[in-house]
Amino acid sequence: MQESEKRKQEGRLSHVDESGKARMVDVGAKVPVHRSARAVGSIRIAPETVELVRENKMKKGDVLTVAQIAGIQAAKQTHTLIPLCHPLPLTHIEVHCRLTETGVQVESTIRCTGQTGVEMEALNGGQPGAAYRLRHVQGRRLLYGNGEYLSARKEKGSCRMSITLGSINISERKGTVKTPIHRAEVYEQGLKEDAHSGDWHRMISLLGQASVERFEKQMDRNIGPGEFGENLTIEGLDLNEVAVLDRFTIGGVELEITQIGKTCHGDDCAIFKEVGKCVMPQEGLFARVIRGGTIETGQDIEYHPRDFVIRVLTVSDRVSAGVYKDRSGPRALELVKAAFASKRYHLRTEYQCVPDEQEAIEAAFTAALNAGEDIVISTGGTGIGPRDITPEALAAVAEKMVPGVMDHIRLTAGARKPNALLSRSACAVGSSTIFYTLPGSVKAVEEYLQELFKTLDHMVAMLHGIGH
Q: Is residue 251 classed exposed, middle or buried when 0-12, 13-18 and 19+ CB atoms within 10 A define those classes?
């Protein structure tokens, strides 16, 4: 276990040594991987200055462009500005400064291939760097704050290590030891001449060599290729990191993961009958064929993890104008992250706020749909007031409405609080995106998400044609 992970589990700070003194974390043992982070914040300036910037009438020229450059420069200098930060080989810095009614919103995205994350670079580029330039604008009133680290990503792939196809195994019957072969044809329903091939979501089974070796150590027994009934044994990657909808390419063949683990065959499983235990129910993966072709043992494999993107969209005139602090949106993000902490997805969350304007709401929904995001959770605008038009915006974008889940929540809540029946919360789908429009109160967000999470996995599977 990495020292940093051990400290995290024990609740200790990573930048403090055993004696309580500051230290720089040693990341030398980590393998360089692709990393990215995104942060956003706001800088409030005087209203009259906002207009001068908007009309480009500042004496010092194009303020936003210079602020953008300052933000980029600040991100590059993070390790010299913030104690204990590592110098990193940044490969991409993107800073956007957008004028709002109350000031400037600054968003930064940072990428690198390195041994530690770039969250601090994203925060530093998105706020202090741009603020340094903006403080020189006309007018003395400048409030720098509301900085928020939104998301980080560690991309897993061939850069981590060499991933290869250790073995190919087939059998005439299910639940039996499979026979190793050197080469196989992959067609639209799996491996030719294998019992698991067919028109279903578990066409090909995969098992990591790391899982096999762990089992061998536990049972003090050597395990041969195909003994667990796996079609493919993967070397160089612990498949416990892999999530549903991730993909593997082996030459021209492409597979998509559809299921993690399975029900044990029990006495019908050859390895279970022999040793009373099997690894496939917990650590085996199952895939469907996206593109067929020929595969051979020893062939290189590319792993393509897929981000599972959940966008929280706050719909509020007051929050959008900066006169009211959003509470329901951040709470929704907290609940999403907590619910997905135990799930096998590569979660990436996004946050956005728009006013109660149907055009703006539709645009946000449409952008998420076109980007292939998985879930959009909006808060606000579901009542019967004159500005409550979120359900109408959703209806204009969605392909299918799913009324049952929201009806159930309304009826349950309405039994305790009749006013809850006035909510027009909605659930819908478009392509592979799930939309939930929730009321704007924190209490309602908590109650709704508690119920919605119960059917979420099944909805995702249905939309992707997995196991239904």
A: middle
Distance between CA atoms of residues 271 and 463, nearest Å: 35
> Cβ atoms within 10 A of the Cβ of 452, count?
22
pTM: 0.67
Q: What is the sign of the dihedral through the CA atoms of 231, 236, 240 and 241?
A: negative
Supply 82's token pair.
């913030």
As a whole number of angstroms, the distance between CA 387 and CA 58 comes to 36
Q: Is 83 exposed, middle or buried (0-12, 13-18, 19+ CB in 10 A)?
A: exposed
pLDDT tens-digit readout, 101-140: 777 778 888 888 888 888 888 888 766 555 444 544 444 3
Q: What is the pLDDT of residues 398-434, one digit of tens each?
A: 999 999 999 999 999 999 999 999 999 999 999 999 9
DSSP conformational letter for 240: G
What's the CA gap between 250 and 85, in Å, rounded? 38
Task: State the pLDDT confidence band at 84, using cuts at 50, 70 and 90.
Answer: confident
Helices within 181-327 (DSSP H only): 209-219, 270-275, 280-283, 317-321
CB distance 419 to 306 below 8 Å: no
| Secondary structure (DSSP) of 314-376 | EE-HHHHHTSS---HHHHHHHHHHHHHTTSSSEEEEEEEEE-S-HHHHHHHHHHHHHTT-SEE
Closest CA to 219 of 276, 179, 177: 276
Q: What span, in angstroms and rounded, lies between the C-alpha atoms of 204 and 190?
A: 6
d(CA 327, CA 314): 9
Nearest to 66 by CA among 48, 49, 53: 53
Q: Cα separation of 343 and 365, whole Å?
A: 25
- At residue 2, the 3 state secondary structure works out as coil
CB 42 within 8 A of CB 146: yes
Range name among 68-82, 360-374, 421-435 with the lowest pLDDT average: 68-82
CB atoms within 10 A of CB 53: 22
Geometric angle at alpha carbon 363, from 56 and 72, rounded to 5°:
45
304: left (phi over 0), alpha (psi -120 to 50) or beta: beta
Residues contacting 8, CB < 8 A, separation 6+: 14
Residues making up the chain, counted from first to last: 468
